[in-house]
Design a protein that fits this description.
This protein is mostly beta strands. The chain has one domain. The strands form six sheets. A six-stranded mixed β-sheet has the order 10-11-12-14-19-18, covered by helices on one side. It has a five-stranded antiparallel β-sheet with strand order 6-7-8-9-13. It is globular and about 50 Å long. It starts with a helix and ends in a 10-residue tail after the last strand.
């Protein structure tokens, strides 16, 4: 009897392991080049997106936004962005680009202010937005978000509140702002089913302080943006606003272990039905410190307290990591070691991806992005190649 039970347990374990693995990529798409290169920029690349139907790519380089063709020729740009323009995603509903935008007082904000030679914002005025860029209106180089009406912003009040929080800890949940963004279905969506409604997911930036434990989670906010027209506010340079929804539809926590600055880029992939989280890996020795995680969108959220977060004891909705990749038994986390993705991650379907490889010119110190075509391998050691 004991042997039978052992055999059944092993069989179930193997079945779970097999079903957790994602399928490998399909035939290579013929309309996407092997790479698209953009260089010569002051700041490093933060995110990218592609519109295959129209034949354009979009890049954020912290204070600039570029529209290119699929050969890397810059067709149009926004050269005066107030703050830190980060990760981006193309809306499958309205075709506009949604990007994270931070206007804040910490070391990131100070570095940007110094390079742009503008006054640094103070903490009381620090604010976080989703910048909505009407890419169809981008028709020439040097367009201005204030004068040309190509960008509106919506305040992410939830992140602002956690960033400003200072009692009994500074920055609740170690919130340093926002960064990764993606459109995806509701959590619990079953693979293969049509997506009836798309939601915007926004990930927190997270301080990587080794002396606190609330940063062992990453935080994802879910928004229904179908009514955001009432919040969209034109850009007025030098001013900030707080027009935005009072709260997200949901606030999720993902136990990943420590990261440095949280989720840098995020992408929903319908091929595997997962939201991939690309991070700057953490530095706590008790964790494997993966570069890449994946949330299993087919598993509904569960409620539980946050481990090691004494100042916040409520049960909160949490998401489940896909049981794929490398597994660390001590922390119970799954993930991958993968060098790229933190500066740009974009699923294009069928197991194919556009992934940013950032670079720096050693002579003039300018920054570049080589957006390369990768395919999903299903290999725990080398997830993309």
């Amino acid at each position: 009897m004991r042997r039978l039970l052992t055999f059944l347990a092993l069989a179930v374990s193997m079945a779970v392991s097999c079903t957790a693995k994602a399928p490998v990529a399909t035939i290579r798409p013929s309309d996407v080049p092997d790479s698209v290169y953009v260089g010569g920029q002051m700041f490093h690349v933060q995110g990218l997106a592609i519109d295959r139907e129209k034949g354009y790519m979009y890049f954020s380089f912290t204070s600039q936004f570029f529209k290119t063709d699929l050969q890397g020729n810059i067709l149009a740009s926004i050269d005066r962005v107030q703050g830190h323009l980060g990760a981006m995603t193309l809306s499958p509903v309205d075709g506009r680009v949604y990007a994270s935008l931070e206007c804040k007082d910490d070391e990131i904000g100070a570095n940007i202010s110094k390079k742009l030679e503008v006054k640094q914002i103070d903490r009381a005025s620090s604010v976080f937005y989703i910048a909505i860029i009407d890419v169809d209106k981008l028709t020439r180089l040097g367009m201005d978000p204030e004068k040309d009406g190509v960008m509106t912003t919506v305040c992410v009040k939830e992140a602002c509140a956690d960033y400003q929080f200072n009692d009994p800890v500074d920055h609740r949940f170690a919130c340093s702002g926002i960064d990764g963004v993606t459109f995806g279905p509701a959590i619990g969506h079953k693979a293969g089913k049509a997506i009836k409604k798309w939601y915007l997911y926004v990930a927190y930036g997270v301080y990587g302080d080794n002396n606190r434990s609330d940063n062992d989670y990453n935080v994802l906010l879910r928004y229904d943006v179908s009514d955001w027209a009432r919040y969209e506010t034109p850009v007025v340079f030098g001013e900030v606003h707080t027009n935005g929804p009072e709260a997200p539809a949901d606030k999720y926590f993902v136990y990943t272990g420590n990261t440095t600055w949280g989720v840098q880029n995020m992408a929903y992939d319908s091929f595997t039905n997962r939201i991939y989280l690309a991070v700057y890996k953490g530095k706590k020795p008790q964790y494997p410190n993966y570069d890449l995680f994946a949330v299993d969108c087919s598993v509904k959220p569960f409620k539980a307290p946050l481990q090691g977060v004494d100042y916040f004891t409520s049960k909160v909705p949490q998401l489940t990591l896909a049981k794929d990749g490398l597994y660390d038994e001590a922390s119970g986390t799954y993930g991958w070691h993968f060098k790229w993705g933190s500066t740009g991650l974009c699923s294009i379907g069928g197991g194919w991806w556009i992934i940013s490889e950032k670079g720096k010119n050693k002579v003039d110190k300018t920054n570049s992005c080589n957006a390369r075509l990768y395919h999903w391998t299903g290999n725990s050691e080398v997830p993309f190649e």
